[in-house]
Design brief:
Distance between the termini: 38 Å
Shape: flat
CATH architecture of the domain at 39-103: Roll
CATH class of the domain at 39-103: Alpha Beta
Oligomer: single chain
Radius of gyration: 17 Å
Length: 107
């Protein structure tokens, strides 16, 4: 499975046309092996277009990772062709469910 190249200094996948960045936050505790304060809480898409790399046969979605200690890191989600198809179907279902909820009409 192809992977996006990593930035050698941050070990993060680069965003297309942008440099990964993180916001400063308090340092995690010394015993942060599995400390909940450094856990990933959620990821939100950035307001940028998903890009398709024909040579790598993958799509790249810019996202922001939010951690429980307040840090945020801009990175990417990489989709291979099969994952793109599944994500497309899941997104279509979510949009249909949203429309149904707003219309309150039977399917």
């Amino acid at each position: 499975m192809p992977r996006a190249p990593r930035n050698s200094t941050t070990n993060q996948a680069p965003e297309l046309g942008a440099t990964p960045r993180s916001t400063p936050a308090a340092a995690p505790p010394e015993s942060a092996d599995t400390d909940e304060s450094t856990m990933l809480r959620h990821i939100t898409p950035l307001k940028r277009d998903m890009q398709y790399d024909h040579e790598a046969a993958q799509a790249v979605l810019p996202v922001r990772a939010h951690f429980s200690d307040g840090r945020v890191v801009d990175t990417t989600v990489v989709f291979d062709p099969d994952q793109m198809q599944v994500f497309s179907i899941q997104l279509e279902r979510a949009i249909a469910a949203r429309q149904h909820a707003f219309s309150k009409t039977p399917w």
